Amino acid sequence: MMTSVDTDLIRVLADPLRLRIVTLLAHETLCTTHLVEETGAKQTNLSNHLKVLREAGIVDTEPCGRFTYYRLRPDVVEALAGQFADLARTARTTAEANLKRSCP
Fold first, then answer.
1. Within a 10 A sphere around the Cβ of 31, how many other Cβ atoms?
2. Nearest partner of 58 among 16, 19, 31, judged by Cα
3. Are 68 and 62 in contact (CB under 8 A)?
4. How far is CA 68 from CA 13, 37, 59, 60, in A?
5. Per residue in 46-68, is it b (16+ CB within 10 Å) or e — as a string?
6. Can you tell me the distance from the alpha carbon of 100 to that of 104, in angstroms, rounded to the nearest whole number?
7. Tens digit of pLDDT for each residue in 44-103?
8. What is the pTM assigned to this prediction?
9. How far is CA 69 from CA 33, 50, 89, 98, in A?
């Protein structure tokens, strides 16, 4: 069964712009200016989404002069992927065993 932390991560990543940011950061470390250029989002909106990703522990920041660079934390993504893989294995086992609850 998934924990509330996992549910929170899924909720965070369910937003299309945040998922786009995570996808971009999987390929390279970027600053807000780059992310604005890549996504077309307004800087204020983007900053709010980056704050959510930081607070969820999905991205780390690195100050560089007057800019802040953002980097994806692959360990967090791998942990979530592992939980989905476990869920898929459980579903496969259930389907192969034809497990179902009887109706009253």
1. 17
2. 19
3. yes
4. 21, 15, 12, 10
5. beebbeebeebebbeeeeeeeee
6. 13
7. 999 999 999 999 999 999 999 999 999 999 999 999 888 888 888 888 998 889 888 889
8. 0.82
9. 9, 11, 37, 50
